[in-house]
Amino acid sequence: MRLPPFERKERKNIMGEIYIKNKWLPYLLILPTFLLICIFKLYPIFNSVVQGVLSSDGTFTLDNYQLLFADKTFWSSLWITLKFNLIIIPCQIILSFVMALIVNVKVKGIEGFRTVFYLPFCISLTVATVIWQMMLSVNNGVANSILGIFGIAPVGFLIDKKWALLSIVLIASWRGCAYWMMFFLAGLKGIDTSVYESAKIDGAGFFTSLFKITVPLLKNTWLFVFVANTTANFLMFAPIQIATEGGPQGSTNVLMYEAYKAAFKYSNRPRQACIVTILLVIIMLICLIQNKTLSEKEA
Question: What is the pTM for the complete model shown?
Answer without folding.
Answer: 0.84
